[in-house]
Design goal:
Mean pLDDT: 96
Strand order of the largest sheet: 3-2-1-4-5
Low-confidence stretches: none
Bound molecules: arginine
Helix content: 40-55%
Number of strands: 14
CATH topology of the largest domain: Rossmann fold
CATH superfamily of the largest domain: HUPs
CATH architecture of the largest domain: 3-Layer(aba) Sandwich
Distance between the termini: 89 Å
Strand content: 15-25%
Structural class: alpha/beta
Order of helices and strands: EHEHEHHEHEHHEEEEEHEEHHHEEHHHH
Radius of gyration: 26 Å
Amino acid sequence: MSKEKVVLAYSGGLDTSVCVKWLQDEKNLDVVCVCGNVGQEEIGLDAKKQKALDLGVLDCQVLDLRDEFSDEFLTKAIAANSMYENKYPLLSALSRPLLAKKLVEVAHEFGATYVAHGCTGKGNDQVRFEAAVKALDPELKVIAPVREWDLKCRPDEVAYAHAHNVPVPEGANDNPYSIDDNLWGRAIECGHLEDPWNEPLDDAWVMTKNPEDTPDAPTYTEIEFEAGKPVAVDGKKMKLSEIVIALNKISGDNGFGRLDLVEDRLVGLKSRECYEVPGALTLITAHKALEDICVEGDLLKTKIKLEQDWATAVYNGQWYSPLKNALDAFMADTQKFVTGTVRLKFFKGNCHVVGRKSPFSLYDYGLATYDRDTTFDEKASAGFIEIDTLSLKTWAKVQGPSSAAAQA
Ligand code: ARG
């Protein structure tokens, strides 16, 4: 009788290679690996595929997901100015639902009973993978080997790998950090960073230059948007994945895009995280500046509140959920007139918006100017304030600080 099958999210690193062996030996399953390229600093995807095949997997599918990730996920993240707790632009939270979707597709293709991932039991990513899988196919069962096995730390995994003929990458015990990266940036945690008082060491940063080592003259860049989507950089039309790559370089070379923060994980603990998100922060900064002139004021205020709900839903693994779908529909509606150009100035680790223009700009020079020929009727403001403060004045007389009630 043929064995049951499991589709594993495989990165080619030590964790997921050990997962392959463990699923074969401990669970008696045939393994199919899926290795998604979402723009991580992946070297040697072919070698990783070969490594999986050498471990005896049924198949190892290496999928180039960069454009799907950009067009389906980053576009929505930009529309929602995605910032969990107002500070983290959600890079890992954006890639997991796409990888989960591919696991489900490949599971259907192979008639697999299970999908598996290499996430630990105390992070957000396990929840994101599993919530997405359940939303896409509630019948599929999930196995999380790292949560189940008794390999407590990296040296335990290395020992298991040696004992089971799993090739161990050189320096597997040396890497001081846990890294997750994709087009949208790079997350750095663990090691020296686990003490939130420790300043990150220089070796934590890869995509961004130390601001002290950046050019002594500013760099100006223009980003063009159409209906909320970035379409060109410095006049050059590009697809979104190329725009993100171009901006990662421009911003990173100017030392912009480093974050060092403590965030609240879904599982209830606070976690110190460093991120390099040069392109992401640049695009969100520019996009917000364009919205400032293109989105009507009341709508903008409501959007800013709902952006937090969007980011929290995505952070918490609710990419495929009715709440997130409805929020996306709201966000999409707000983007219809977000078309125009934003001019940015990078200098020594900073990025400032220094210009914005749009054919749909609601900024009215005649109303805003302090020149004599302004179209704003200042005399009308007296009546406006009279009515606007009516409720406040009534309160002040009856209950306010100088009222009889307050004196009593
Ligand atoms: N804390 C971030 C998040 O939950 C990043 C997680 C990154 N994962 C990693 N293995 N370093 O989205």
